[in-house]
Specification:
By secondary structure, the protein is of the alpha+beta class. The chain has 7 helices and 8 strands; from the N terminus they run βαααβααβαβββαββ. Helix 3 crosses helix 5 (121-130). The longest helix is centred in the middle third of the chain and has 16 residues, at 145-160.
Length: 272
């Protein structure tokens, strides 16, 4: 069993019915289901990208970079200096569907489309947008993607002694791919994390602990709180929303997430 203690410095949330971390925490305190918005979530064009790259940005890129921009705004954290971990279940369905449609018709796939079809495209656009030359890690492990990304980010923060940016995002899939993986609404979060024993200048929203232990024979308990829609049950990124909701939960409340043959048990509370 391993323990990783950490500080959460800033976090951003982008999801239907949730425009901010404050809205998420308010929903978690009430414990009532989120209201369903009448219109789909609008994803802004990434203002940090050059105009030509901005026009080519996919929905996955727009979702991830919108979360990053919100997370680092009005904070002392410089996005150009942060190591990063990007975690996504699928990540490129929109572009893959376009390419499949093209192969089934004209068979003329644009070379400008292909770079957006790889699952690490948002991390590449992040490096362009913020001129970031720090190491970037991209993980994609299905519904365990957020758990893997969180463990990766905290391990890097502990080993490197520097804050790490964690971006967990799942863009909506288009038909017919959404029949295979029901990700029908975009969800995203961005976190800046550091190891607790590392001095970091900046705000501290909360402090937490991640316990990593073998799963053994016992399944992980249900992770989805009552205030998150059942339709998001297959979103890896919804687990990130549930994790941030711990900031509004009673002290000591834990969230257990499966990761292969492991269980990750997370506690997270606000600073005094």
């Amino acid at each position: 069993m391993s323990r990783l203690r950490f500080s959460l410095h800033t976090a951003a949330v982008l999801a239907p019915g949730l425009g901010s971390l404050e809205a998420l925490l308010d929903a978690a305190r009430r414990g009532t289901p989120l209201p369903r918005p009448d219109s789909p979530l609008a994803l802004p064009a990434p203002s940090a990208l050059p105009p030509n790259e901005r026009r080519r940005a996919s929905r996955a890129v727009r979702l991830a970079l919108a979360c990053v921009e919100q997370a680092v705004a009005d904070t002392p954290f410089d996005a150009s200096t942060l190591r990063s971990v990007f975690a996504t279940d699928e990540g490129t369905g929109e572009i893959c569907q376009q390419m499949l449609d093209t192969l089934a018709t004209t068979r003329q796939v644009s070379p400008l489309v292909f770079p957006n079809s790889v699952h690490n495209a948002p991390s590449g656009y992040f490096s362009i947008a913020y001129r970031n030359r720090q190491p970037a890690t991209v993980v994609s492990l299905g519904e365990d993607s957020f758990a893997s990304g969180l463990l990766c980010a905290l391990t890097q923060a502990q080993a490197g002694g520097e804050p790490v940016l964690l971006v967990a995002y799942d863009p909506a899939l288009t038909a017919p791919l959404d029949e295979l993986l029901p990700l029908r609404e975009p969800l995203g979060t961005a976190w800046v994390l550091s190891a607790t024993d590392t001095p970091v200048q900046g705000p501290v929203l909360g402090r937490g602990e991640l316990i990593v232990a073998p799963a053994g024979e016992s399944p992980a308990p249900p992770w989805r709180p009552s205030w998150l829609p059942e339709a998001w049950a297959h979103h890896s990124s919804a687990r990130a929303l549930a994790a941030l909701g711990l900031l509004a939960a009673p002290t000591g409340t834990a969230l257990t997430l499966p990761l292969g043959g492991l269980h990750l048990t997370l506690t997270l509370g606000p600073t005094a």
